[in-house]
Amino acid sequence: MALIVQKYGGSSVADAESIKRVAKRIVDTRRAGHDVVVAVSAMGDTTDELLDLAGQVAPIPAPRELDMLLSSGERISMALLAMAIHPMGFEARSFTGSQAGMITDATHGAARIVDVTPVRLREALDEGAIVIVAGFQGFNRDTRDITTLGRGGSDTTAVALAAALEADVCEIYSDVDGVFTADPRVVPRARKLDRISSEEMLELAANGAKVLYIRAVEYARRHGVLIHARSTFSSAEGTWVGTGRHPHHVPEGEHMEEPIVAGVATDLGQAKITVVGVPDVPGKAAEIFKIVAKSGANVDMIVQNVSAAGTARTDISFTLPKTDATTALKALAGEQIEVGFESLVHDDQIGKLSVVGAGMRTHSGVSATLFEALSTTGINIEMISTSEIRISVVLRAADIAEAARVVHTAYGLDGDADATIYAGTGR
Amino acid sequence: MALIVQKYGGSSVADAESIKRVAKRIVDTRRAGHDVVVAVSAMGDTTDELLDLAGQVAPIPAPRELDMLLSSGERISMALLAMAIHPMGFEARSFTGSQAGMITDATHGAARIVDVTPVRLREALDEGAIVIVAGFQGFNRDTRDITTLGRGGSDTTAVALAAALEADVCEIYSDVDGVFTADPRVVPRARKLDRISSEEMLELAANGAKVLYIRAVEYARRHGVLIHARSTFSSAEGTWVGTGRHPHHVPEGEHMEEPIVAGVATDLGQAKITVVGVPDVPGKAAEIFKIVAKSGANVDMIVQNVSAAGTARTDISFTLPKTDATTALKALAGEQIEVGFESLVHDDQIGKLSVVGAGMRTHSGVSATLFEALSTTGINIEMISTSEIRISVVLRAADIAEAARVVHTAYGLDGDADATIYAGTGR
Q: What pTM was computed for the model?
């Protein structure tokens, strides 16, 4: 008898049939003797449709009203899910973010959870009911207004509920079987991982892996929540994510017994901006990245070339999400005279490949394997950055797939057969 | 500078364009210097679509969850309406039923308002904002659950807000110009009434007029709220509904200066059941109507014939909504032996015509005019019932339209030209 939190995304509850399928899965868990709390997203494309309507009535919808609008999506899915459970012989009750005690700050559209007070959920559990909670939404105590958590919000809702209720596990359901050593659509021989540490999962998520949202993984790591990433369409075990004492956790301090590299992540969502001919004097880099930060862009990797011989100028390149590139370019162009650079080059044909593994900490030669694998294939490396458990390289976008395959092989990650790929997007 | 409550139904906010049109209308009222509180229904067919989804996941959806589901419809429309107002230069804030302080009992699907505590609405008004409230929904304090008010709920929300905020007027917008002396689709020469007393409006609404819901009119009468029923598509005055001291009210005690008959209502939604051969002994009628009431049917008119000479049996006929007929028939058939009647006759080809007017109280001969008009046209009357300000007759359904026209003429209600008819349903 455990307390299990489950999260189902929009594609898992896209229509009445899917909702009934999820209801059955929830009831099966309850029948096995567990208490069940479910966080559910809005049905299928509901959120996009509501956003579209908002765009039709106002060029820039008021954030408070946008949250009020979007939060109705999960109310629909959670009520339908609760209804679908009743005919299967179990009591189920749905709760909005505020009814569930999901207290956030007042940042509409990207609220941070500040407290979780699941009094009503505990009452319902004590009365034997299955609890269904609206994902993605919360409530601010001061303004008494409804908030939403932003991208990946329902994952975060599930993890936060698991932490507050001290659940045994937080099961995050999607249309993939778990966390893979690489994206199976890019690397056919990718293998599902049985378990992975939070730190490794964070690096993978931050560098292109889409199976879990980085924010939810970070919340889980901080609160010691064990995540089980698994498929809505299969009863097979997925991937256990976490570091701790639970039998399914990656044991603490035992990274040496783990493979050196856990996985290879690829990301085609970034662009590169090069600021050409920057005066090579102290403070210029700070000036540039202050401008970029002010434009709201999230800079990832930065490389500064040494000055060409005989000039007092240098080039500074950085990567950032493609969607941020235009505003960053505009912001920089507006300050060209003040900063004194010569020109801007925008390159959106890049790709990032990252190798992640906690074992890197104690093993040398990990980067050599990467560089060698790429060089024997004749793939050129444009930028390099590293963290304690990750090495990332920027390559031509066209080279990413081949690079991922050779690197995956070089680290001995290949499985015996090709992985099964579902039609879905991984979310 | 007045406080005006406005209610817009689902057809007035069916899509983005309609929402912007309504937003403009609200802003025009605000620009004229008035405080504005708006009660809004769910967009177009949203409620029906949600009901359909509920039916797909559960044969009999749990009432609590159904209310959670349906209440999301108004959250969508109210948020969009508030958003649409902002670009027009005014602040607007949307509030759910619970945020607006609409406290109800716990009867899911047909909750009664027990208290209205519009603290947040007053705050918003004091800060100069236009207030948008979700119609149709409330909140129960004991269960802390969301409730819905049932059919015509948004009209009731608007009237209840007007009462609690002591608004100067409650404007109920629909796709018709106001209250007419008859349904213009039946009686082309029907005229819009400039004003009508609450009592007359109640009788019209109870006997087939669809422009206002009886429950909202009753609430308004009890709390002295002046209703202005008008069209979303025109700025012309509609019909003022109410009895009181306001210049637009029908003056109290001055009915003698009013026309004797305010209007003619028709209703094709009823059926007639005749219980044939009932033993003519005391208590049998009570027995029959106890059975019918227990089946949940709302009986309207009742007629008992005198026993035919030489028999100890009589026939009892009554009318009820067509939708209640099957369950009532079943209930009666199940008790045939106990009650001892001979057979049941079901007739769903009837129509009811009602003539309503406060002036009837002081004028004799009103019914004579009705009977004479019908008899000269050769239309047979099957049942008759009266109240202090109403006479209703049951006719063949096929005769209703002609009957309404001749009666309308007989009471001198005909206008000089045919009324404009909109495509809508009147709601």
A: 0.84
